[in-house]
Amino acid sequence: xxxxxxxxxxxxxxxxxxxxxxxxxxxxxxxxxxxxxxxxxxxxxxxxxxxxxxxxxxxxxxxxxxxxxxxxxxxxxxxxx
Length: 81
Description:
Layout: H1 3-8, E1 17-22, H2 33-43, E2 49-52, E3 57-62, H3 66-80
């Protein structure tokens, strides 16, 4: 939910995050992708929640870390090429 929408509805929240959608298709039963993503982000000091979707995987990170998270993920992607 967008922050503006939560504010307009008077909802209380304690976390403001950004969703990063990965532009890859992975199997929902694949092993290792979540670990690789969370390890790379964790080593950079960025907390995350990785969740798999049918067509895309997503990562939720604190808004303040979103740009750094994208940089970490781009580096990880280039290493995989």
